[in-house]
Design brief:
By secondary structure, the chain is of the alpha+beta class. It has 3 domains: about 60 residues, no CATH class; about 120 residues, Tetrahydropterin Synthase, Chain A; about 30 residues. It has 5 helices and 8 strands. The strands form 3 sheets. Strands 5, 6, 7 and 8 form a 4-stranded antiparallel sheet that branches. Strands 1-3 form a two-stranded antiparallel sheet. It has a two-stranded antiparallel sheet with strand order 2-4. β6 and β7 form a beta hairpin.
Length: about 300
């Protein structure tokens, strides 16, 4: 065999050996991930996670990666959100009514507890999300959902329910490194059609009652305003009449007080107009009263 062919064969064999060696004894952990070593022979899980980079591992050992960054997953009825299939979830509330909901969860994995998480469930993070966490959500919804009736959920109770579910998931899964930051309902809750129609009718009736009450309050306010205006006009007329009466009274007093004086002045004026310029020829003394007739002729 030519020497050149031997060299080519050795290079190929070396590359194959390196490739086998790499896949068997060397593990590569991506950035923002940790690796958990799992021995396929005895089932042992190493309790110290592998950080990002290259690591030499033992024979028969597999490495499972877990992301350390926060991630969000949604379960919806629409095939255009999340996975291309119906992943919405049903749960029961008070009176046994079944509600269908779209859900969203945001969580992260504690890197130091990734080996504990794998030891517990023997699954990667995708299966933990779609199986373990999903089942935990469904169970928690059925536990706490019975505290609410359908109308209560629609009127704001779903916020409280979501917080109770988030707290329950954290209480159950925190020891294994799962930390739920947010959980909630997305889109509208889907109720049985008869329940939804009854709730809509009640809401409409309440709205109409509120509208009627508001109209009544407006009418009462308008009536009170009209009464106040009428009272104002009446008070103004009374004040005007009282003013006129007082003016007439003052005028009457003036006439009464000064009428006699005016008559006396008038009589005196007439006497002066008729006097012929002659002084009286008879003296009556200081204490005698003399009565003379104006305009009378003496014999």
């Amino acid at each position: 065999m030519p020497k050149k062919l031997i060299n080519v064969a050795l290079v190929i064999i070396g590359l194959v050996f390196i490739l086998i060696l790499k896949n068997t004894f060397i593990a590569s952990i991506a950035a923002n991930h940790v690796g958990v070593e799992f021995n396929r022979i005895d089932g042992r899980v190493e309790h110290i996670p592998l950080t990002s980079g290259w690591h030499v591992i033992g024979v028969g050992t597999s490495v499972v990666e877990f992301p350390t960054f926060t991630q969000t997953y949604t379960w919806t009825k629409s095939v255009h959100e999340g996975a291309p299939l119906d992943e919405s979830m049903n749960f029961q509330v008070a009176s046994g009514v079944v509600i269908n909901a779209d859900l969203s969860i945001t969580y992260s994995i504690d890197p130091t507890k990734a080996p504990t998480l794998y030891q517990k469930y023997k699954r990667g993070y995708e299966e933990i999300t779609t199986q373990i966490i999903r089942n935990e959500i469904r169970n928690s919804l059925n536990v706490y959902g019975t505290e609410f009736d359908p109308e209560g959920l629609l009127s704001g109770g779903k916020i409280k329910l979501a917080e109770e579910v988030r707290s329950k998931i954290n209480a159950d899964l925190n020891p294994f490194g799962i930390m739920v930051e947010q959980f909630g309902f997305i889109n509208e809750l889907r109720l049985p059609s008869n329940i939804q129609q009854a709730i809509n009718a009640k809401i409409q009736a309440n709205q109409e009652a509120l509208k009627s009450e508001a109209m009544l309050r407006k009418n009462l306010a308008d009536a009170a305003n009209a009464v106040a205006i009428a009272k104002g006009h009446a008070s103004a007329k009374i004040a005007e009449a009282e003013g006129d009466a007082r003016a007439l009274a003052v005028l009457g007093e003036s006439i009464k007080q000064y009428g006699a004086e005016a008559a006396r002045v008038k009589n005196q004026t007439l006497w002066i107009e008729k006097w012929d310029g002659k002084l009286p020829t008879t003296s009556a003394g200081n204490n005698a009263a003399l009565m003379l007739g104006v305009g009378e002729k003496t014999p």
